[in-house]
Amino acid sequence: MENKQGPIAGIDYPRTFKEFDSFFADEASCRAYIFRLRWANGYQCLKCSSNAPPWITSRGYIHCRECGSEISITARTIFESTRNPLKTWFLAMWLVTSQKDGASALGLQRVLGLGSYQTAWAWLHKLRHAMVRSGRARLSGHVEVDETYIGGTKRGGKRGRGASKKNIVAIAIEVHFPKGFGRVRMRRIADVSGASLIPFVCDFVEPGAVILTDGWCGYNDLPKHGYIHNKTVLSNTGDPAHVAMPGVHRISALLKRWLLSTHQGSVSAKHLDYYLDEYTFRFNRRTSRSRGLLFYRLMEQAVVTVPTSYRNIVDVNHNI
Ligand SMILES: [Zn+2]
Questions:
Q1: Structural element, H or E, at residue 211
Q2: Nearest of 102, 122, 114 to residue 276 by alpha carbon
Q3: How far is the CA of 141 from the centre of ligand 1 (A)?
Q4: Helix (H) or strand (E) holding 44
Q5: Under a CB-based contact definition with an 8 Å cutoff, are residues 306 and 139 in contact?
Q6: Which whole-number Å values give the CA distances from 184 to 90, 240, 247, 248, 277, in the listed order?
Q7: Residue 240 pLDDT more than 70?
Q8: Is 131 helix (H, G, I), strand (E, B) or coil?
């Protein structure tokens, strides 16, 4: 389905809410859409690997002509075992992607008429879980790396590092010349030691990249890991941090504003990672031609993302 030009607006994804409504008139059309995206490169039976086009039963099961096995179209997607209509899920995804700043759990619960706040909250987290798949390719070129502090009430210590009761978030962003920014990656880290910062860079940035940091010693070992380290010692230049690290400074400010406005700052430490994933997904697709394309990208990832249970979401810290 996806050719060199990429997905086509109005054909592969809806452009407006009116089109959304006609794309997904009933459950069967929602299931057909999942099938189409999930097996965009041709169907293959999960059990016997047959490529024979399957029957689709009226209950939404895929019936293999070769081995006779039946699986739900939604098996092994984030929609697996949902008790809600797929259309409600699709609508949640439309709301999350069509609004510039996304949706809050309370907003989603109200608009969709979901039974509880917990359900809306769990849905949003499942969607964020799907969004993180977008972040697989590592950054390259010139990349600014720095940390920022989210939440808490205390002011930071010396140069903001070593502050207590705040979440430390490492941020890496591609810097374009003469101006502009590329993709971003973020992760909550336990502290600002090299043991936390170096693995963050190794996980998210291609070796050979030029890493721009301030003078913090936590970054000193970058050359040992194959990076070109370009250190700007702030006390030498006299520049405030936002001049030396404009990309990270901008992301940090936008992220904090988003957490405070859309989510009223009510983000607990152990769930912050999910919000970072959503913010990263949005930022890295900020140049998408339309909001419908964002919906399509999220749907693409939702159909290949193994579902997480509510328990998992509530209990697990997914990075540290
Ligand atoms: Zn089969």
A1: strand 210-214
A2: 102
A3: 45
A4: none
A5: no
A6: 27, 22, 9, 9, 10
A7: no
A8: helix
DSSP for 217-271, written as a single string = GGGTTGGGGT-EEEEE-HHHH---HHHHSHHHHHHHHHHHHHHHHTSTT---GGG
58-83 confidence digits (pLDDT tens) = 888 999 999 999 989 998 899 988 88
pLDDT digits (tens, 9 = 90+) for 11-42: 999 999 999 999 999 999 999 999 999 988 88
Secondary element (H or E) of residue 172: strand 167-175
Q: Say what the pLDDT of residue 197 is.
A: 96
Would you say 157 and 250 are in contact if contact means Cβ atoms under 8 Å apart?
Answer: no
Give the CA count within 13 Å in the CB-facing half-sphere of 191.
6
| Residue pointed to by tokens 């990656």 | 185
Ligand 1 center to residue 281 CA distance, Å?
35
From the CA of 18, how far away is ligand 1's center (Å)? 38
User: Residue 233 is encoded by which pair of tokens?
Assistant: 């010692």
70 C-alpha to ligand 1 centroid (Å) = 8
Confidence of residue 5 (pLDDT cuts 50, 70, 90): low
Task: Output the CA 42–ligand 1 centroid distance in Å.
Answer: 14
Separation of CA 50 and ligand 1 centre (Å):
5
Ligand 1 centre and the CA of 71: distance in Å?
Answer: 10
Q: What is the pLDDT of residues 256-312, one digit of tens each?
A: 998 888 877 667 777 888 889 899 998 988 887 788 899 999 999 999 887 766 656
The backbone torsions φ and ψ at residue 50, rounded to the nearest 5 degrees and listed phi first, read -65, 145
Strands (E) located in 58-154: 61-63, 70-72, 142-150
Distance in angstroms between the alpha carbons of the first and the last residue of the chain: 38
pLDDT of residue 161: 53
- Find the 45 Cα to ligand 1 centroid distance in Å: 5
